[in-house]
Queue: 2 jobs
Job 1
Amino acid sequence: EDKVVQSPLSLVVHEGDTVTLNCSYEVTNFRSLLWYKQEKKAPTFLFMLTSSGIEKKSGRLSSILDKKELFSILNITATQTGDSAVYLCAVIVRGGSEKLVFGKGTKLTVNP
Amino acid sequence: NAGVTQTPKFRVLKTGQSMTLLCAQDMNHEYMYWYRQDPGMGLRLIHYSVGEGTTAKGEVPDGYNVSRLKKQNFLLGLESAAPSQTSVYFCASSSPRSGGFTDTQYFGPGTRLTVL
């Protein structure tokens, strides 16, 4: 059974802190890993990672994939209250029809 | 472009009632998906479609039916609603790369359904 596990499930930090969110996976046929940010409503796309060791960056957010150890991390530096959200990790699994398997998410709360 | 839209935004049903959720996308995407999101469960795939006229079961298909009669629309039906179907429902769409791979999924705003 394809599985995506995120840790921690929740995290509370103060503004300015740096956080690292983890995503590990066990899937039959990996294609890519996606990170999403979900605030009140729909998830919004952050990154797609397909190759090991190549860091993707967007402002204070960055992410990297390790296909040997089957995990990815999402880093947020100098956190702001606007970073408070649930961060979702998902893996695209190849097959007859591709599918997206989601983790349960990490709820990040950034306090002023 | 409106992106992915969902109708309705909120709905309250009584057990045994039926309803249809509508998802529409204007990005000409081939793939469309229906998810449900429950507290502590993440997003779970109900059904999906890889093209007009085709549908397939996801992780939690029981109690739901879908139809994709037009490329831009994906309907999710509940024939006889149950309290266990109380959830937030998200629709998403994506465009496959060459080789038929899915890519980044774009999500609708969600429908909050309560079944009493």
Job 2
Amino acid sequence: QVQLQESGPGLVKPSQTLSLTCTVSGGSISSGRYYWGWIRQPAGQGLEWIGRIYTNGNTNYNPSLKSRVTLSVDTSKNRFSLKLRSVTASDTAVYYCASLDCGGDCPIDYWGPGTLVTVSS
Amino acid sequence: QSVLTQPPSVSGAPGQRVTISCTGSSSNIGAGYDVHWYQQLPGTAPKLLVYGNNNRPSGIPDRFSGSKSGTSASLAITGLQAEDEAYYYCQSYDSNLSGVFGGGTKLTVL
């Protein structure tokens, strides 16, 4: 069973770049049918899709975040990463990394436990 | 404002049946993209409950079932139990291949 773990700073200053990494264990990130994604959830609110990436670098982003987001994957370290530029307080949220089984219609089958990122000076 | 629309809350007594609706549009659910459902217990990550409109992952009881028609989908929970009290989210894809979520529905077991 795949396990995912987010890591990165819990506090980011406004206008700076939020950077998170997700380490995958229990399976290869290069597994053919899987995409790897990021979702976030502000406190007391619903889930928001950030984007997904395949190991060949193919990406799909939320249009509302696309101009500030970059996803990347490092197959040698079995991990993938999120960069969100020019953050503001509204980017404060729990960030989840996830695996998407795209053998079908890409449900999110495994989630990391989530990591809280606060944007504040 | 979420792309998919869910009722903010539903409730039911133990043993009863409840349904949660998820309404989209012609650019997502109506375009043929499957709907997936997730359960989120307080303080935890969401968990996949139903995928591909009406399929359950291993370990999910058959009390949970999904359906899809046109631009909408539904999650039905029968034989309500206290441990079903949680938030439920529907998810699909838009024509730009970005994922979209419903705003979430809080299920209260009375």
